[in-house]
Specification:
Length: 257
């Protein structure tokens, strides 16, 4: 792959790769953590189109509840990019609830994540640098409606292409999301996201997603969203985004005897 093509591919990937920090299917993160001794496993497929880049991404994420206030997360995506296939950059993180009510449905939490530099940059499977994100999450819940507000800052690493360091801007993000109970076990979800581009000279992103969550059983949830840019000519991307997946919840520790 020529240096010019590689630099262009990295730039295009940066346009369609959202900032860190949320569990599927939304790009906004919620406030509650996984219960202590419980684990959540997300498995799904994400399709993103922005300009000439199309990606089909079987993605998985594991969340482990450490206490009533803290959890650990790990995400290991498997990517298909421009004809190349393989594991992308691994993301590791933690979330801590600063303030919450007795039902754990309203309050404020903070999270910190690191996106590692393990994916192949030459094949377009990795960004070529380590990114760090700090995110503040606020949540308020009413009888049938739950609202989220996210404010985040990502310190973006600068990849080296053909011996030259590529300039990248840090990312600032603001998002709002809402879940509405429309039927037993069924919730309608919507969100809007704004973030600046990490690539100098590229347009900022203003996008929206909408979809559903369905609790199939107490420990299994089906969910999916579709979305796109809200700007003229899809400026800032994406032209189209879709995600469909399932969440499994189970005990992370064996029961005490």
């Amino acid at each position: 792959m020529s240096p010019a093509r590689l630099a262009g591919l990295l730039a295009a990937l940066a346009l369609v790769c959202p900032p860190l920090g949320a569990t599927p299917p939304l790009e906004s993160g919620d406030m509650p953590t996984a219960d202590a001794g419980r684990a959540e496993f997300f498995l799904g497929t994400k399709y993103v189109k922005s300009g000439a880049v199309e990606r089909s991404i079987p993605a998985d994420e594991l969340v482990l509840g450490l206490s009533e206030r803290e959890e650990l997360t790990a995400e290991v995506p498997y990517l298909s990019v421009d004809g190349h296939h393989g594991f992308g950059d691994i993301t590791l993180g933690t979330k801590y609830m600063f303030n919450y009510n007795d039902k754990r449905d309203s309050g404020i939490a903070g999270s910190f994540e690191a996106k590692l530099d393990n994916g192949s940059r030459a094949s377009g499977l990795g960004n070529g640098a380590v990114d760090y994100e700090a995110r503040l999450r606020a949540q308020e819940t009413w009888p049938k409606v739950t609202s989220y507000l996210n404010v985040a800052h990502t310190w973006v690493g600068q990849p080296v292409v053909n011996g030259r360091r590529q300039l990248r801007h840090n990312i600032r993000l603001v998002s709002v999301a809402q879940e509405t109970l429309v039927a037993k076990n069924l919730r309608f979800i919507t969100e809007m996201i704004w973030n600046n581009s990490d690539i100098p000279g590229e347009p900022h992103r203003l996008a929206a997603n909408s979809g559903v969550r369905y609790a199939l059983t107490r420990n299994i949830e089906l969910h999916g969203t579709i979305g796109r840019s809200l700007r003229d000519a899809n400026a800032g991307g994406p032209t189209y985004r879709a995600y469909a997946g399932v969440k499994f919840e189970f005990a992370s520790l064996p029961p005490e005897r």
